[in-house]
Amino acid sequence: WARGLLAVAAGLGLFYVVLRVPLRLRDSLAAVTVFLSTLTPKFYFALTVTSSFISGLIFVFEWWHFRKYGTSFIEQVSVSHLRPLIGGAENSPPAPAAFSAGENETSRQNMPECKVWRNPLNLFRGAEYSRYMWVTGKEPLTYYDMNLSAQDHQNFFTCDTDALRPSDTVMQKAWRERNPQARIKAAYQALELNNDCATAYVLLAEEEATTIVDAEKYFKQALKAGEMIYRKSQNCHSQSPQHEAQLRRDTNVLVYVKRRLAMCARKLGRIREAVKMMRDLMKEFPLLSMLNIHENLLEALLELQAYADVQAVLAKYDDISLPKSAAICYTAALLKARAVSERFSPETASKRGLSTAEINAVEAIHRAVEFNPHVPKYLLEMKSLVLPPEHILKRGDSEAVAYAFFHLQHWKRIEGALNLLHCTWEGTFRMIPYPLEKGHLFYPYPSCTETADRELLPTFHEVSVYPQKELPFFIHFTAGLCSFSAMLALLTHQFPELMVIFAKA
């Protein structure tokens, strides 16, 4: 009986509360309506101005934080502090393990800010660059790039003793000529004076030959003449400093010819012959490592899918005392990715975590992306490629174009490698030290890369700029909020009565 009375009383109390809620809600709505009806246009103007000012301050702070640290403050706080409270988890790849400290310190020492390097895989002017210009009507090489090549030719193929041989005197002038037809005409003049002028054959192979087959024929003639001159220089190089300079020049000519012959064999499909020629050349002239012949060898071995040999070459040249390149870093990442890419799944990895092999692959990709962040967009075909220039800037867009032009096919050949790169590179890109003055695995990113790349790459190519990171969502949001509230303030000031009616409605 007592429990029945209590139940009836509880029911009556609940019924009373249900009846009172709509009454209170109606009273509250009536109070709000009375309050809004008493507000003046000045209040709405002050409100919009204040909100515009506050959102503007937030926008300025967000922009400053992004410029200094490379991330949005609001996004960083929400990811680092709010998401764990809500129960979410950030599935970001683990922080990369620290590489050898000696690599970082050695790279920092005596490192010029912007040094332009000869492209180890540069194309043939007559057989490749000129054919592109005939078909498209676009000049693939810039004047700055060709001027650097002219300086290289003068340094490689001339010396102080050229006056002793008339043919070499003619060729010394030929390398300075700006007009290609004038250079070709001078090469034929040199051959009339001396049928064994190796540098004349080199010029004709580079610029007059319209196919790789024709270029190879000229280079074989240059090799025959170059070996004969080289043997003569070896026999008398100790007689005087002039003879030593002549031996250096003849050595440069011989190495250049052998390398280009190996590249001709590679382009004509004789890959194993090209690999043998490159290995022999590296054994015969081990001190000429600055010519980066190993990068030609790496590309040829990847074409053969001889991954064990590729790893052996990397073990020798991916050393802390040697300058890095995109070919070295990204080939190392490709080999690490090859071990896990076929079975890699982002969904599975986010649930169970990354395995040791996957962590190694992610770290290798992070290392490669930090060295040259322009490469992934070309490998993932998010940016269109152009013919690589004859000179490249390491860590620049020009190097990225040159690497992707020859190595994209090797990434496509390994199943899942590009998928792993796509899932990884953006996350590692955010972890790259920022701003420019900082460096983690390598020396700080040079600040002049954009300017140098614009000189090296053709005008019709959109130069990739780094570290121009995309603006976070919250910067766009605060900028829009600030603009919208400022517009409301302006409209309230100009049309106060109309805006009050709109606000009340």
UniProtKB/TrEMBL annotation:
InterPro entries in alphabetical order: ST7, TPR-like_helical_dom_sf
Source species, domain of life: Eukaryota
Compartmental location: Membrane
Record's GO cellular component terms: membrane
Chief location bin: membrane
A Pfam match: ST7
The UniProt record lists the keyword Membrane: yes
Residue ranges crossing the lipid bilayer per the database entry: 44-64
Keywords associated with the record: Membrane, Transmembrane, Transmembrane helix
Membrane topology: Multi-pass membrane protein
Family affiliation: Belongs to the ST7 family.
Protein name: Suppressor of tumorigenicity 7 protein-like
Species in which this protein is naturally found: Podilymbus podiceps
